[in-house]
Design goal:
Layout: H1 2-21, H2 25-45, H3 50-55, H4 60-73, H5 99-108, H6 110-134, H7 144-161, H8 163-168, H9 171-188, H10 201-227, H11 233-248, H12 252-260, H13 262-280, H14 295-302, H15 309-318
Helix pairs in contact: 1-7, 5-6, 6-10, 6-11, 6-12, 6-13, 7-10, 9-10, 9-13, 10-11, 12-13
Length: 319
């Protein structure tokens, strides 16, 4: 997802340039509309998800057709014509689990439920803070366009470099660092010091906080997918995105917070980001480990009754 976010941020930077060059709102809206129409073209060329066709539609031939398209796109010579596809989570062929069944399993396996609730909170906090800064850059500095330009560059740096800490430190340590670092940056931003007449400690630290939150935002998709069992992955990620969007709908009020009391707004941002960073300590690290197939497997892993490949290898190396 961080790769996709690079293109998102590139569009963000182009929108700043467009807004600077086109000052009349109706022409600005028209130019954005033409871009949206152009975005429909590649969507018409991309096939449906093979897993969706297999699990939700019980369409094995359609899933194979989609896979053949992906195989050709990757330049592979893999032959799947004589392969029987099945839902690997159950081993019994395609099977759609209802929302009621998903909720029942969550209640049955408490470790899975707690893990899901932690993810919801982290997504909500990151969504509110990420978009909270995005709606508030006009409150920083004397030139609104420069403020948004700096923010876009900070996000671009975050998305192009986020894979390095994710691979080197791991998913969990990286997100703890991103969120606690953003919390610390918000606290330091309260220092009333100006480097120049138009650039202050507050603006610099808010840019750092925004960059760290963008890195967390870009990595949460991967982290949540690796945390979620195969039987629930789509719904878990969907619920997390809904929670993120619900929180982000409150983000425009963040600019009002900065107008009301800048120190108070930064304190709220610091507390929220810090709480999310501490919450991540309650999640397992998924780096280099196989994803769970069922909610029961999440529970057994938490209880130590199922060891991942990494844990087995670590014990062998220690012996």
């Amino acid at each position: 997802n961080s790769t996709l976010q690079v293109f998102w941020t590139t569009g963000y930077l182009l929108s700043i340039l467009t807004g600077y060059l086109i000052r009349q709102w109706h022409w600005l809206a028209a130019s954005s509309g033409f871009l949206f129409l152009g975005a429909l073209i590649p969507l018409l060329l991309v096939p449906e998800s093979p897993r969706f066709l297999l699990v939700n539609k019980n369409n094995e031939e359609g899933a194979k057709k989609s896979l053949r398209w992906l195989i050709r796109l990757n330049g592979s010579d893999l032959d799947i014509d004589n392969v029987t596809l099945e839902d690997v989570a159950t081993g019994e062929g395609p099977k759609e689990e209802s929302l009621k069944e998903n909720l029942r399993e969550m209640w049955k396996y408490k470790a899975f439920l707690v893990q899901f609730l932690i993810q919801l909170w982290v997504w909500m906090v990151v969504g509110f803070l990420y978009y909270g800064f995005s709606f508030s850059w006009s409150s920083f500095g004397k030139n609104m366009y420069y403020s948004y330009l700096y923010a876009g560059i900070a996000e671009l740096i975050a998305y192009t470099s986020v894979t390095l800490p994710l691979d080197y430190w791991g998913r969990k340590p990286s997100n703890v660092f991103f969120l606690l670092g953003a919390s610390g940056a918000c606290l330091v931003a309260m220092v009333p010091y100006h480097f120049t007449a138009s650039f202050s400690v507050e603006q610099l630290c808010c840019l750092v906080a925004s960059m760290l939150l963008a890195a967390s935002f870009g990595s949460l998709y991967l982290y949540s997918m690796e945390l979620s069992p195969t039987t629930h992955r789509g719904k878990i990620l969907g619920w997390c995105c809904v929670a993120c969007k619900m929180a982000s709908s409150l983000a425009p009020q963040a600019s009002l917070l900065f107008d009301w009391n800048r120190t108070g707004a930064l304190a709220i941002f610091a507390v929220l980001s810090g709480s999310a960073g501490l919450a991540v300590f309650g999640l397992p690290d998924t780096t280099g480990r196989p994803t769970p197939n069922t909610a029961k497997e999440v529970q057994l892993r938490r209880e130590g009754k199922i060891k991942t490949h990494n844990e087995d290898q670590t014990q062998q190396d220690f012996s």
